[in-house]
Design brief:
The protein is mainly α. The protein has one domain: Cytochrome c oxidase-like, subunit I domain (Cytochrome C Oxidase, Chain A). Helices cover 76% and strands 0% of the residues. It is built from 13 helices and no strands. Helix 8 runs antiparallel to helix 9. The radius of gyration is 21 Å and the shape is globular.
Length: 430
């Protein structure tokens, strides 16, 4: 592993990111249970209440929590950006998002306006109390790498989609679903997928692939131009969708071109690794490249069929691309966090990062997850596939929770004994 360029001395307390990582799979299990009792016909409409609830359990509860937890760590380590009072604001953000998402699920399912008002308040506060300090921290970074720029742009998109989300949720609470609501919902979903999650993944990949996988570095054009070009395409698409919808397809082609190029580049770089050792995280990156390619082209294809495949696009890109990478990175980030913090505190006789998670269980989780995604796609044509796919998804999320907790348990057990070295002797005294 290459630690060059990391500010590991500025890492936040381990509790900051871990609370998000531990909670995330629980929302995945909840989404799977809802899928278990849904029917494929209702899920085919992006505006059905079941689809909205399940989608947000996954987008906010699963990869939203993972991304915020990862950003809490990566902004300090990759960017050298010190988030003010990181322990306090990460705790508040986690609590507000947890409460807000529960209120949202209950409010949408029961058409309870009071619960939806609380949901908009707590979710908005939960996101903003973490996003705004992150943006402030980035604004004070002196050395802007490609990854830092990607994270900054991603957080700006996150800020905008959060404000849109609060507006949409408040509209449901007031039962005020206008034509504007549908327009904002469309922008909200596209910017969330490509602007927040997509740009974040691309930005982080510039440093993560060479660091974790010893893959060749990205070319300067990719680092300097791709995030800007994608962001420009997303704003052009929004403008055309609002004022010249018949030309919006060209903006889609613009966006898809760069994401497909990213998917291809990732695949090539994994083939050119200096140490081509394969593990489940590599499988996730490769699967993400395939799903991104399929989903991107289906997003274009869907334009000619009055958006009847848009939910399938969401499964391929949201689940197959974004979630695959989020889950794959969890298998790298959580063991790294435990290993790094224990070493920093003087504990030397601990398992290596590769030993903290059972490889057979991580492979089983990967297989079940991919099988569930493929099953969800086929459920559009064979409804009987939905039930076993939901079961596979639930079991994969249970295994994910166990795999995340395993390194945490090592951390807890190790902390019960004295460090191998007294690190206090290395501290500076005033």
């Amino acid at each position: 592993m290459d630690f060059n360029g990391l500010s590991i001395d500025q890492a936040p307390p381990i509790s900051g990111p871990l609370r998000f990582f531990i909670t995330a799979p629980l929302f995945g299990i909840m989404a799977g249970v809802m899928l278990l009792f849904s029917d494929s016909a209702s899920l085919m409409s992006r505006y059905s209440m079941d689809a909205i609830v399940i989608v947000h359990l996954i987008t906010i509860g699963l990869f939203g929590f993972i991304m915020l937890g990862a950003l809490t760590q990566m902004l300090s380590v990759l960017a050298g950006a010190n988030i003010p009072k990181v322990k306090l604001i990460s705790s508040l953000s986690h609590l507000f998002l947890l409460v807000g998402l529960v209120f949202m699920v209950f409010g949408l399912q029961e058409s309870n306006s009071i619960a939806l008002e609380f949901a908009s308040l707590f979710l908005g506060s939960g996101f903003l109390c973490l996003i705004l300090p992150m943006l402030y921290a980035i604004s004070r970074v002196q050395h802007f790498t490609a990854s830092v720029k990607g994270m900054r742009v991603s957080l700006l998109f996150a800020l905008m989609i959060v404000l849109m989300g609060v507006y949409l949720l408040y509209g449901y609470s007031q039962n005020n679903i206008t034509e504007l609501h549908a327009i904002v919902a469309n922008i909200h979903s596209v910017w969330a997928v490509f602007g927040f999650a997509g740009v974040l993944i691309i930005g982080v990949a510039f440093q993560v692939l060479p660091m974790f996988y010893v893959a060749p570095r990205f070319k300067q054009f990719c680092k300097k131009r791709v995030v800007l070009l994608i962001s420009t395409g997303l704003f052009i698409w929004m403008f055309l969708s609002l004022y010249a919808e018949e030309y919006a397809l060209y903006a889609k082609l613009w966006i898809v071109t760069f994401f497909w190029a990213f998917a291809t580049t990732v695949w090539i770089k994994f083939n050119k690794r200096k140490r081509p050792i394969s593990d489940v995280t590599v499988w996730y990156w490769r699967a993400a490249s395939i799903f991104l390619t399929l989903g991107s082209f289906l997003w274009i294809f869907d334009e000619f069929f009055k958006h009847q495949y848009i939910v399938m696009v969401g499964i391929l890109i949201g689940g197959g691309f974004i979630l695959s990478i989020m889950l794959g990175m969890l298998y790298k980030i959580v063991p790294f966090l435990v290993w790094f913090h224990l070493n920093a505190e003087g504990y030397m006789t601990i398992p290596t990062m590769n030993e903290m998670i059972n490889k057979n269980l991580s492979r089983a989780q990967f297989v079940l997850f991919i099988a569930a995604l493929i099953g969800f796609v086929f459920a559009f044509y064979m409804p009987m596939v939905l039930f076993p796919s939901a079961v596979a998804f639930i079991v994969s999320m249970m295994l994910l929770e166990y795999n995340v907790l395993a390194p945490v348990w090592i951390y807890i057990q190790t902390k019960k004994r004295k460090p191998d070295f007294d690190m206090s002797s290395f501290s500076m005294t005033n």
